Amino acid sequence: MSDANRPDDRTKTEQILDLLLDALLERQTARRRASEVARADTARPRAAPPPTTRPSASADTPSAPAVRPSAAASRRATPARERPAQKPAPDEVGWEPAAPVPGIGLHRIVWRLVAFVLAMALFINVPLTRHGVSLARLLPDSDALVIRDGLVLKGSGDEIYQLQDDKLRWISSMDAFDALRLTWDDVHVVDDDLLATFEQGEPIHVLVGCHDSPHIYLHEGPVKRWIKDIPTFEAQGYRWVDIHWIDCDALRAIPDGPPIPEDAGTPPQP
User: Fold this and answer.
1) In the sheet where 243-245 sits, what is the strand order?
2) Among candidates 270, 133, 268, 153, which has minimal Cα distance to 201?
3) Where are the domains of the chain?
4) Is the Cα torsion angle 213, 215, 216, 220 positive or negative in sign?
5) Is the pTM above the cut of 0.70?
6) Tens-level pLDDT at each residue, the chain (270 residues)
């Protein structure tokens, strides 16, 4: 029995796959033949086409595939880039210096700064008040005083004052100065005109005594005044905590003044 008459045992799916495989093989064979023909046409020199018009291809004649120019031919057809002209060096002919860079106007800045300084100097030193006082004298310096209670002032004389309640109170002795726990660094020497602007207050005296004597004195200026007894001490408003204790010899060296009260008699020595 021949193959044509043999019954086909393949399924329909297998038959379809076989047909597709045959079609792919035929197309691959046709592409291989077309590529061989194209390589052969590229290898042999092509003759110039005749001036006559080319007859149109018939439907039965297969059209030849278009031939692309090779990469080498395209590179040969591309014109070479021109190299940029090289600038001459400074020691060569044709060299020109570069254009100068614009400046920042330093001279203008300097002149403006000088003008500003001059304007500020005139503003500070020109009188601003009707009394002819300039701003430079109105501004406080490092030695300017802050007027406050407790400020210790001294004029051209020997007297030392303490400012209390806007009144100058004379510190009558060095014992009083020490009792106030003041030092010479606390003393500010000022003009007498400044002292004259304040009202005079009560002097600052100090109670003094020594541990070897029961007597208490009021050191008032250059003298000491004996306080007769405790009732007199308390009647004067004195306090025991305000007594400044010193050496007995130093206390005896202070001259005697009138006692408190003045009719108390001769004051005893410590």
Assistant:
1) 223-226, 217-220, 206-209, 243-245
2) 153
3) 152-200, 206-253
4) negative
5) no
6) 444 455 556 688 888 888 888 888 888 888 888 888 777 766 665 555 555 555 444 444 445 444 555 554 555 555 556 666 677 777 777 777 777 767 667 778 888 899 999 888 777 666 655 545 455 555 444 456 778 888 999 999 989 999 998 899 999 899 999 988 999 999 999 989 888 989 999 999 999 999 999 999 999 989 999 999 999 999 999 999 989 999 999 999 999 999 999 998 999 988
